[in-house]
Write a structure and sequence with these properties.
This protein has helices at 2-22, 24-27, 29-39, 77-89, 160-171, 284-298, 319-324, 336-346, 349-362, 368-381, 405-415, 421-426, 504-521; strands at residues 48-55, 61-65, 96-105, 110-118, 176-177, 181-184, 191-192, 200-201, 210-216, 225-229, 236-244, 251-258, 261-269, 275-280, 302-303, 327-332, 451-462, 467-480, 486-498. It is an alpha+beta fold and 522 residues long. It has two domains: 25-85 and 372-521, Beta-lactamase (3-Layer(aba) Sandwich); 95-334, D-Ala-D-Ala carboxypeptidase C, peptidase S13 (D-tyrosyl-trna(Tyr) Deacylase, Chain: A). The strands form five sheets. Strands 3, 4, 5, 6, 15 and 16 form a six-stranded mixed sheet that branches. The chain has a five-stranded antiparallel sheet with strand order 2-1-19-18-17, sandwiched between helices. A hairpin with a 4-residue loop joins strand 3 (96-105) and strand 4 (110-118). The relative contact order is 0.18.
């Protein structure tokens, strides 16, 4: 009888081994079970999941669930937008922003005419350049400051590009501008950003078209210390933010009073870390003009025109004429690869929304729709099944943005074969280390720094119930398993309630946990 049971067990083990070989899903049962435990938590009762993990080398599917279904991608949209822009512009592309003169310089160093800055679409304009020639970023970017208390400012001077131009003007021998200072912002048609943060996509962008407001608590009952960056005559700020006792609520409210004035009221608890808030300027061109005149003054160049005037009503000469005017200065940006890093690390909506327009300009076109059509052609050439997906913008917040796990992984596999892949890959947030993935796994997680991927978060007010609906939480990119396999993956969860202690971080942590499961089971 004992021999019979031994033989029976041998047959059973042989059967399981054969089934595991011929049916990979049997071999992956522990993996599937572990993922199942994550996605079947109570807060996902009404949600929809999609996932695809593929071996980059062999193309073998490691795990999948609804890979051909459409999901709102949120900011994983930027994977597609950045890939297209990298292809169109090149990782080494540098934006050049010239300052030209329309008029002659007399013997006294006076320009009898105008200075004209020709906007080039430079996304950062020197305002994030570090001393070692890199782009500065904080894990929580200032453009999101009005929605959280974690945002931080980077250390470089946001006016560095304008100061550079102003110093060159002074070095050229111009001591005074008798005419005006103008901004030629006709590079492409203006558009709206498709994500949170600054809303206006413009050819000229200084400090992301916002004024930073940094509040620091003082003594209880006293006004909070306010630092305005950049400090400019363009905006007058009235602050009524008061320091309150430790443990009391943090609250701020910004009211636009019109005519370049805002009022800020609220409270900041004693001992609270410095709090960043932002105010988006209404007219990016007028803002840039004021800041440039102020930079010229600092460089010792006088300007007769008023500093904080609106954009001039005087028509500019034709673009061809302006381009032919003598140059007196030019600002050159960091390589585009650095902009890619900023966009992907912090999920910069304004810059991502600008990319399709820069792609359109590269091809002699002007509109968002033209740029997205160019993106269609790039993705089709890359082997992405473009007929299955939809994009209405570049950042991930457009109503028409929908992708499949299949299409996302198709893009990721294509990018892994390109020469500029290191730029694309290294610009992605590192799980547990930096960017929008810096806090999604514990420091001792086996997945820490084994995943480089783009996050996505999109939520809407559930006004009827006084709560919030998470429209999309997403994660897509690359990971290296414990056995050394390199995978491309896409994870999407759509339509889950944010309530009863569940936050967007809960969902982000769960996506990180799934990556950890795949990493340790493969």
């Amino acid at each position: 009888m004992k021999r019979f049971f031994l033989w029976q067990r041998f047959v059973w083990l042989f059967f399981v081994a054969v089934m595991a070989w011929s049916h990979p899903s049997v071999a992956k049962e522990p993996l599937v079970k572990a993922i199942h435990e994550v996605v079947h938590q109570p807060h996902y009762k009404y949600a929809h999941w999609g996932a695809l993990f593929v071996d980059l080398k062999s193309g073998d599917v490691v795990f999948e669930h609804a890979p051909s279904k459409l999901f709102a991608p949120a900011s994983t949209t930027k994977l597609f937008t950045v890939a297209c822009a990298l292809d169109a512009l090149g990782a080494d592309h540098r934006f050049q922003t010239p300052l030209v003169r329309h008029g002659e310089i007399n013997e006294q160093g006076e320009l009898i005419g105008d200075l004209i800055l020709i906007a080039s679409g430079d996304l950062s304009f020197g305002g994030r350049t570090t001393s070692d020639g890199r782009i500065a970023f904080a894990n929580s970017d200032h453009t999101y400051a009005n929605g959280n208390a974690d945002a931080e400012l980077t250390s470089p001077d946001p006016l560095a590009g304008l100061n550079d131009l102003a110093k060159q003007v002074a070095a050229s021998g111009i001591k005074r501008v008798r005419g005006d200072v103008l901004i030629d912002d006709r590079l492409f048609d203006k558009a709206e950003s498709s994500g949170s943060g600054p809303t206006h996509v413009t050819p000229i962008t200084i400090n992301d078209n916002v004024v930073d407001l940094l509040f620091e608590p003082t003594e209880v009952g006293h006004p909070a210390k306010l630092t305005i960056r950049p400090h400019t005559a363009y905006l007058h700020v009235e602050s009524k933010v008061t320091t309150v006792e430790h443990g009391k609520p943090l609250a701020t409210s910004i009211q636009d009073l019109g005519h370049g004035r805002i009022s800020i009221t609220g409270t900041i608890p004693a001992g609270h870390k410095p709090l960043v808030r932002i105010h988006e300027v209404h007219d990016a061109t007028a803002f840039a003009r004021t800041l440039l005149i102020e930079a010229l003054h600092r460089a010792g160049v006088g300007v007769d025109a008023p500093t904080a005037a609106s954009t001039t009503s005087r028509p500019l000469p034709s673009p061809a004429e302006v381009k032919a005017f003598p140059r007196v200065a030019v600002h050159t940006s960091l390589p585009f690869s650095e902009s890619v890093k900023l966009i992907l690390k912090v999920s910069h909506n304004l810059h991502a929304s600008t990319l399709p327009l820069l792609v359109a300009h590269k091809h002699g076109e002007r509109t968002l729709s033209a740029g997205l059509k160019r993106q269609h052609d790039f993705l089709k050439h890359a082997g992405v099944d473009v007929d299955t997906i939809s994009f209405g913008g570049g950042a991930g917040g457009a109503r028409g943005d929908f992708v499949t796990p299949d299409a996302t992984v198709q893009l990721l596999r294509h990018m892994a074969k390109r020469q500029d892949f290191p730029v694309y890959h290294d610009a992605l947030p590192r799980l547990g280390v930096d960017g929008t993935l810096s806090k999604n796994v514990p420091h001792d997680s086996p997945a820490r720094d084994k995943v480089q991927a783009k996050t996505g978060t999109l939520y809407s007010d559930n006004t009827m119930n006084g709560s919030t609906l998470m429209t999309s939480k997403a994660l897509a990119g690359y990971l290296t398993t414990a056995s050394g396999r390199h995978l491309a993956f896409a994870l999407f969860v759509n339509n889950a309630h944010i309530r009863d202690g569940v936050t967007t971080k809960t969902f982000g942590d769960d996506l990180g946990k799934i990556c950890e499961i795949v990493l340790t089971h493969e």
